[in-house]
Please model this.
Amino acid sequence: MSQAAHSLSWLPLRNHAADAKFPLMNEAPISLNLDAALAEAEANFVAKRPKTAALHDRAKAVMPGGNTRTVLYSAPFPIRIERAEGAILHDIDGHTYTDFVGEYSAGLYGHSNPLIAKAVADAMAFGVNIGAQHVREVVFAEEVCRRFHLDLVRFTNSGTEANMMAIAAARCHTRRKKVMAMHGGYHGGTLYFAHGASPVNAPFDVILARYNDIEATAELIEAEASDLACVILEPMLGGGGCIPASPEFLQMLRERTKHHGIVLIFDEVMTSRLAPGGYRSSTASNRT
Ligand SMILES: Cc1ncc(COP(=O)(O)O)c(C=O)c1O
Model:
């Protein structure tokens, strides 16, 4: 952080009346020095969450970092939720929060939605872990194909697994090795390209392109075409700052990949919620 940023002042924003309802928003420190303000905010946060601190210590004994989903971690320890309804979360220390995260867009219907809870209960009553083909998967697959304009669908347990399978299928079918992804792209725990490639990434031979840079990406595709199995990207770069792709960039990718027989993979784990048929359906240039 630059010296100028360090010397920025904080305004005292405390609103004691709202303290109980919106604890995080009202823990703004009164110090004018940024480092001291941060230390003060952290001390306030810890002091108000003794049960959370104790449970975090227990969690650390059985999970690395006390956490099993990296994105939910924040120092010194994340809030720990007891229950949730609609847009409201309650933590184990008795604080209430308004949820603006919305499970990173997956929590579209709010927490504990009764219709969803009933559908899950009905499905469980039908049978748990059947280990055989059944009627409901056909009905579900038909609906997914109809809505997302797909020919065929294969269900997976996670977005990471779906992307790993899509890349593996592209490599098998094209008999080529390389994978093009975007700087800042996130396609799962083993496919993460925020600062180059993550050390725990799957060992694919990856080429990174710059999102929305039409000329440089087209040149890279031309240069690597004979070895390139697939290009994987989100139609909106979610983890990289929610940057929508320009229609021209997507059009170029569609044309270049089609021309060279490269598989174009749209990861819509996040953007499928942006339009009834996924984000891809909302831009005419991407319907192919
Ligand atoms: C764009 C994108 N791809 C893939 C994934 C990985 O999905 P999962 O966490 O289900 O493995 C995510 C998860 O947030 C995602 O946002």
User: Anything to note?
Assistant: The chain has two domains: 3-102, 157-286. The longest helix spans residues 159-174. The pocket of pyridoxal-5'-phosphate is lined by residues 104, 158-160, 163, 186-188, 234, 238, 267, 269-270 (CB under 6 Å).
